[in-house]
Amino acid sequence: xxxxxxxxxxxxxxxxxxxxxxxxxxxxxxFAGFPALIAVVIAYSxxxxxxxxxxxxxxxxxxxxxxxxxxxxxxxxxxLAGVIGGLGEVLSMASITGWEHLETLQIQLQDxxxxxxxIALLALAVLLGFLSxxxxxxxxAIGFIRLASERGMGDSAAA
Length: 159
Fold this sequence. Notes:
The protein is mostly helical. It has helices spanning 10-27, 34-46, 52-97, 116-148. The chain has one domain (11-148).
């Protein structure tokens, strides 16, 4: 019995972990971002121990995570502000009709006007969510392709 797998260079293991990180970042779109947390923990723990080329990929994975996190956080903030603004307009209409008898409360939806600010916030939330998803589709794919061709993230195509 031989133990040739123990003699494998350390770079192969870190390169495999970098490929796993890209796969987790890509999969995070479909699983509410939880795989991205695993990917960024791996990237933070391995970026100092890997050789230079693979280390640049771990740094890129960290950048992918933080850009997607900020975009998603901004989208959630806009969506929350839009929903609260819309509910505020509905509740202001309900306060006009009265709160005395909550069980008989009726709100005429044709009388409610949703303001442009609420619509703009909700549209911005959709746009930021779309950009975050697009970033999590394209950036890991580019990184994975560059890692598979054994190029660092700062290298030019001619190198």
